Request: fold
Amino acid sequence: MNYADVVEKRRAINVFDVDRDVPDDVLQQMIELAAKAPSSFNLQPWNVVVLRDAADKARLRSLAWDQPKVTEAPVVFIVLADRDGWKEGHPTVERNWQEMLDAGMMTDDQRDWFLNAAKTLYNWGSEADLAFAAKNAGFFGMGLMYAATSLGLETHPMDGFDHEGVRKEFNIPDNYWIPMLLAVGYLRPGQDVFPPKWRKGYEDIVVAF
Ligand SMILES: Cc1cc2nc3c(=O)[nH]c(=O)nc-3n(C[C@H](O)[C@H](O)[C@H](O)COP(=O)(O)O)c2cc1C
Reply:
């Protein structure tokens, strides 16, 4: 499938095959393909909680507007955006720094410059670190959906859920914001997908001020 095929084929699917599981290796491939998404300073402030267990999905469904796809899909992701993912001492920040040193992209004397650049952008209030986390994790989320399509899977993103309820129920630390839940699986056999929905066109999207 080329890129256009993937984009055209991806749909938010409401009806999943309850009898067909997603193999672990396919799920891993999906996540690792999505992780090729770009991110600010390559900080990759995203994580995923993977739910497969029926009882876990039932707990999630009760906090997600009782949407049937939460329990019908074999796998549901709680996608996480890490608001702390730019801070000095954060494991990914330190790994990123070491990787850049090892690759010869940075030298030791540039560490303060590097850390200060992130602070300037993201250390001026809760709006800044939420924006940092949400935009980068959003790209990852999109990557998950396109990767899934390319692997023959179907998905459905959801923000119809009680954010704080889900965070507490699944013991998710409060540095994380949850940009979406993502149901993953296969279309139920015999089920038609709705025709593609309308999209804004070029003229609607391009603006000048
Ligand atoms: C961030 C996000 C949150 C969404 N939340 C829900 C949701 O809670 N429930 C739902 O039925 N659809 C949800 N959708 C699906 C959209 O309604 C759907 O993507 C849109 O109508 C376009 O349809 P398509 O994805 O099939 O092209 C969400 C989509 C996104 C991107």
